[in-house]
Every structure is written in structure tokens, then in C-alpha cells.
Amino acid sequence: MTTPVRRPVASLWIGEKLQYLNQICLLSHVQAGHPTTLYCTDEVSNVPEGVEVRKATEIMDIPMDIVEQTSASFLSNVFRYKMIQKTGAIWIDCDAFCHKPFPDEMEYIFAGHGFRGALNCGVVAIPQTGELMDRLLDYYDNLPPAPPWFNKNQLRKLGRQDESLPHAVKIYKAERTAFGPQAFTYFARETGAIEHALTNDYLYPVPFQLNDIFYDPHGRVEGHFTENTLSVHLYTNGTKPWWRKNVPLENSYAWRMCQQTGVNPADALE
Question: Which of 20, 124, 185, 212 has its CB 3.0 to 4.6 Å from that of 268, i.e. a possible disulfide?
Fold first, then answer.
């Protein structure tokens, strides 16, 4: 029985080596039948078989000088929408594990996460054209003096930044999520697209604050899942260093997903 061909998904990697959690997440989409593309800024030595590798410059010029002053997530927040606009693929973070294939009929795929309810943009599908896409790209391409949702405290932090820094870097240093969840949530509300938001259980069934559960051999991760769950975000940016440098404990969720995808975690530790 052949696996049906499903909607394409894509992500971005900055660096020369994936961690095992990234490998299992990319492979989970391949094994679910999604054509999976990884756009790269460098030559990556350990991309799993079945993942198509393409140059990130096919989507946009890569301002590595800005990335070096911010983070990889800064670039992914801009890259995400330009990639969707050009290709129509579903954006997936490299730490989003495919629990079930994304339905063909879902035009919008995004959801809130954690306990605060703000939208996350770890998995995103939106129309390639339309007001939401236009507003997001205009924000990134024509940065305002300050994001329109900044409160007084954020504005003060912005005002204290070194004037010699690029404007994007000053905004990032004032508020790290100003280019990610905050921007996406604001423009989704402004355009009314927020009415398409899915509930947390679709894409972020485990709250960020509980992410240690993925490495606990006695943790019942699946207890957070519902029949709606399509993706499981593993939050590698919040993973404690020990888990990034050691193989997962037997029977933990991370260990079981390595078994499911055929990845040897010992080969791709931090």
C-alpha cells in the first residue's frame, strides 16, 4: 500500500547540523506523505533521506549580519510568510512532529499555545494572497518606528537600545517575540483572520511550560492529545541542555518517536 501524496510542507534551517529532534520531526512529515522541503542557509550534513534540500536564497536574500545580532528565529519569522507566498506550502518549525497528516481542506492552519492563548506560528498555513499576507509582509519589509501593539514598557525598552544598531535588531532586543507570535497575533486580529484559529490541541497539545514531559519515561504525553491533534510541538528552544546532549530515556515520547521514525539520536546530539 503506497502512502498518499499530501500537501507540501517546508521549513528553514540555519547551521550545518540538525539535532535528532529536528530529524524525527522532518521525517514524521515525510512518513505521513507530505512532500517535505528544508530550506538551508548552509550545507547541512545530516538531513534525513526523503527531505528535499533547497537553498534559502530561493525564497529571499538572507541577512546573516542581522541574524548574528538576533537569532535564527528572527529570520524564520520573516522567511515563513515569504515562503508561503511563493510556494503555498505549509510552514512547519523543525521541532513540530506530525501526529496526523494535515487535511487537504484546511485553508488556515494556526493555533494558540501555552497558557496565555496568544497565537504561535510554529505551524502555519494561510492563503498566499489576501489582507493577512499583505499586512504581515508589509510589516517586515517596512518596519514602523515601533510595532503598533507595543505597550509603554516595551516602548521604553526600545528607546533604550543602542542607536547604532539596525532598527530590526533594536525591536528584537526590546521584545524577542515582536517578529513572531506577537506580530502574527496582532495582524490576525486586525484582519479578522483570527476567527480561523484552531484550538491549542490541534498543534500545541502540550503547553510550553510542561515540555520536560517529552523526555520523561513515565510521562503520559498522549494524555494531552485529542482526536483533533495534528502536530506536536517539541519546543527545542526551551529544552534543557541535558536533553539536547544526551539520548532520550527509553520509553519517553522522544525515544518512542525516534523508534517510530528510525532515527538514532546518538548520531545527532548537540
Answer: 20
